[in-house]
What does this fold into?
Amino acid sequence: MKTTMSLITAAAILTGGAFVNTPQAQGHGHVIQTPAEAQWGPAPPMVPPGAEIAVLSGDPGKAAPYAVRLKFPANYAIPAHSHPTDENVVVVTGGLTLGMGDKLVKSAGAGKTLGPGGYALMPANMNHFAYTTTPTTIVLYGQGPVEFKYVNPSDDPRHTKTAARPEESSPNQD
It folds into this structure.
C-alpha cells in the first residue's frame, strides 16, 4: 500500500498535482474538518524526507490561496530557503523553531521557538530555516504556488539521489 501511495504521489508531482490529495483541495467550497479527519500523505519532495502533508483547501501548486497541515517528526530540519510568496505558519502541536538567515543555526538566540498557537509570517524571498525537537504539526497557508529555493543548492532534497525518501524505500530483503 505504501508503494502504491508513493507511485500515486510521484505521478501527481510529475503532472503538476503534487499537493492535491483530498476532496477539499479539488473545489472551492467550504471546508469543516477536525484534525482526526485529515487525510495524511507524504510531503512533496521539495522538503526533506519524513514530513507528512494534509491539504485542507486549495492547491498549493497553483497560483491560488491554499491551506495545508504539515506534520514533522522530532529533530526534523528544513535548511535555509526562501519562497516566492508569503508563508503563514501557525503551530498546532509541538514546537517549531524558526530563524532568519542563509544557514540553519541551532544555537541559542539564532531562532525563536513557537509553541501551540504561535504564528509566523515569512515574507516572500526572505531566507529562513526551521527545525523541531519534538513531533510538531503546523498549519501553513498563503497564496500559491508553493516553491522552495534553498540557499545552498546541495540542501535541496530534490537533488539527493543517494538517499531514498522513506516512502520510496523497499522492505528489507533477507
User: Anything to note?
Assistant: The chain has one domain: 2-158. The first helix runs from residue 2 to 14. The domain at 2-158 is CATH 2.60.120.10 (Jelly Rolls). Residues 1-26, 162-174 have pLDDT under 50 and may be disordered.
